[in-house]
Amino acid sequence: MLEAPLLSIGEIAQRTGVAASALRYYEAEGLIFSERSLGGQRRFGRDMLRRIAFIRVAQRVGLSLEDIRSALAMLPKSRTPNKNDWARLSRAWRPMLDEQIAVLERLRDQLDSCIGCGCLSLRRCALYNPDDRAAGLGEGPRYLLGDDPASVMDPVVSS
Q: How confident is the model at residue 2 (pLDDT cuts 50, 70, 90)?
């Protein structure tokens, strides 16, 4: 069986919709790999198309390059990943994706009443975040990230 020809960086960029500069960055970060032609030009195997698609989708849902790198490290480097390899990666990522979905759902459901500080509204801030107690739970919009306003309430107030 003949091997599929390698693709130039321009061909990969055109096929994936990712700028050549981003592809070079992904390669520098170890997310994708290329071979060099005799003239020193990058040449990519067709299996990189799937890796790049995975990177794009993962970035689109807000996952970090570190998360993406960790996931891609699960794939074999000695051969083109097959369906079972991708399924194993998918199973490992399911809990992280479920948490990401939960955060997005909370954001969607509470965005109109809680956008900045983490309490449910500026009008009700004294009730749900008295004296900025949510700050003790950590940085960021704590209630959108899943913390319960009741966890910072004064027992006398919340009764």
A: low
Q: For tokens 């079972």, what's the residue?
A: 84
Q: Are residues 119 and 84 in contact, defined by beta-carbon separation less than 8 angstroms?
A: no
Provide the sign of the torsion angle of the four alpha carbons 57, 63, 65, 69, taken in this order: negative
List the beta bridge partners of residue 43: 8, 35
Q: What pLDDT sits at residue 100?
A: 83
**Domain span including residue 159:** 111-159
Please name every residue paired with 102 in a beta bridge, in sequence order, or none if there are none: none
Which is higher by pLDDT, 39 or 118? 39
AA identity, residue 40: G
Three-class secondary structure of residue 50 per DSSP: helix
Decide: pTM greater than 0.85.
Answer: no
16 plus 79 within the same structural domain? yes
Nearest to 3 by CA among 80, 83, 84: 80
